[in-house]
């Protein structure tokens, strides 16, 4: 098992590297975010351990780049004490787990084993439609390998259509996916969101059958 450790603190980095090496892992330790990014882009790692505060490129940016490249390896982020927002940001950006400094090396080792076990049985969460791929677990969308930011309602439309390519969903069926009970629905909300989605994912991504509804072409339909 090969692990990448991105940690600029020399004492913590050395302690983590030595402990993991003793457990039999191959550990590449990078002290700067740019070098860590290059290593992650080039090499094959079974897991990455990312400190959030790093020179060059911080851990959150590293994580986002890694997921944008569709690298699915488990990631554990190392955060400072009390930094609740950074823990949340890390999980939202696709981290599998986090550990708070100062941490116990045995606990870190257990979290690594657990993340590796989960990733071994991880189902493939991607739906691919042409150059668009959708990760249903992370609720994220990529076009040609680059992350695309969709609003929650835009994502709801894309997900509903992408789960059944070729099936036509009416405007009211899409509204049901976008709004909770009791929420007021703008009469042209579906059109507005679909316009926005087409701008982000391509004019042909969502097709319209006038008066009936919308669908995504199956891949073979082009
Ligand atoms: Ca740091």
Key phrases:
single chain, 222 residues, alpha/beta, five-stranded parallel sheet, 8 helices, 11 strands
Description:
The structure is a single chain. By secondary structure, this protein is α/β, with parallel strands linked by helices. Helix content is 41%, strand content 20%. It has eight helices and eleven strands. It has helices at residues 10-22, 33-42, 59-68, 84-92, 105-120, 152-162, 171-178, 189-201, and strands at 2-6, 26-30, 47-51, 75-79, 97-100, 126-129, 132-135, 140-143, 146-148, 207-209, 213-215. The chain has a five-stranded parallel β-sheet with strand order 2-1-3-4-5, sandwiched between helices. Helix 6 packs across helix 7 and helix 6 crosses helix 8 (189-201). It is elongated, with a radius of gyration of 21 Å. The two termini are 41 Å apart. Bound molecules: calcium ion (CA). Residues 8-9, 51, 53-54 line the site of calcium ion. Calcium ion binds next to loops.
